[in-house]
Specification:
Elements: E1 9-15, H1 19-29, E2 38-43, H2 48-56, E3 63-67, H3 75-85, E4 90-95, E5 98-100, H4 104-111, E6 116-119, E7 121-124, H5 127-134, H6 140-145, H7 151-157, H8 174-178, E8 192-195, H9 196-200, H10 218-226, E9 230-233, E10 239-242, H11 253-267
Parallel strand pairs: 1-2, 1-4, 2-3, 6-9, 7-10
Antiparallel strand pairs: 4-8, 5-10, 6-8
Length: 282
């Protein structure tokens, strides 16, 4: 597909007190094979330093900075705010502490389809790589280029998790045509994209979720499915590298609380959330 025929891509970076990582992320995004139409940084806090980053990268990207007063976990509200202010056809959601592969935006653009939510996975990079990336002593491009050669470094020294998710397979290449992408069951909040018009059908993210996990990904899966919007896998094509290992356990308090809330909403068949982009009456 020619670049001029691709949809306009809005890349959303959700963040919270991660100024240095956002700096590293924007610097690495300079290497994208396809630059996004715009980058929307949505911050669940107010950090003056982020204004400096907007100025620093203003010649590279069209950046929209949205900051909110810190009043606890409000990621869903921040993401809805990004959707309201964005002007792209397709929105890619990537957490601010994840550095995308150099063909990340291109893959999301080329593989995008209406009535499909495109989902990739993340690689959990080990400590050996994290600080050098944040300090911009190495780049994601360098990690990509040596990824297979450094397998022992990743698995033994760095303790990289989900290493296999970082092996890039071009869907248009020979291997990509021979091997269908591995399936995805649920949306992963740090690596998915969707046409804006499809996300608006469910009124965006449900702001009733005020604890991490579930609300920004799993909750979307069942609500979108009701409108015939199914998951399309982009594993090993749209790749992002996570700087850290703070994964919530399946039985953590926030997961259990949010899961109970989701079940209640499912029982009510509340496919269009009331507390979303638009504030609807019950």
């Amino acid at each position: 597909m020619k670049k001029e025929n691709l949809p306009k891509m809005s890349l959303v970076l959700s963040t919270y007190k991660q100024y240095k990582i956002i700096d590293a992320c924007l610097n690495n995004l300079r290497n994208q094979s396809l630059k996004p139409h715009e980058i929307i940084i949505t911050n669940d806090n107010i950090e003056p330093e982020l204004n400096e980053l907007v100025d620093k990268y203003s010649t590279d990207f069209n950046i929209i900075l949205l900051q909110n007063e810190d009043k606890g976990f409000r990621k869903c509200m921040c993401l809805n705010n990004a959707v309201k202010h964005g002007t792209g056809d397709v929105f890619i959601f990537n957490d601010g502490d994840c550095l995308p592969h150099s063909r990340f935006v291109e893959m999301h653009a080329k593989l995008s389809e209406k009535n499909r939510v495109l989902c990739g996975r993340r690689v959990m990079l080990g400590d050996y790589f994290i600080e050098p990336l944040i300090q911009q002593k190495i780049s994601i491009k360098e990690i990509e280029n040596s990824y297979l050669r450094q397998i022992l470094t990743h698995l033994q020294k760095a303790k990289t998790d989900y290493y296999e998710e970082g092996i890039f397979i071009d869907p248009e290449g020979v291997l990509g045509k021979l091997m269908p992408p591995r399936k995805m069951r649920d949306i992963i909040g740090c690596n998915f994209s969707i046409f804006k018009e499809d996300l608006l059908k469910i009124n965006g993210f449900d702001e009733d979720y005020v604890l991490p996990t579930i609300g920004e990904d799993n909750d979307l899966t069942w609500r979108l499915k009701n409108f015939g919007i199914t998951i399309k896998s982009a594993r090993n094509a749209a790749i992002t590298f996570h700087l850290g290992k703070h994964i919530y356990e399946k039985d953590s308090e926030s997961v259990l609380t949010n899961r109970a809330m989701m079940r209640e909403k499912q029982n009510k068949e509340q496919y269009i959330c009331l507390n979303g982009i638009e504030k609807l009456k019950a």
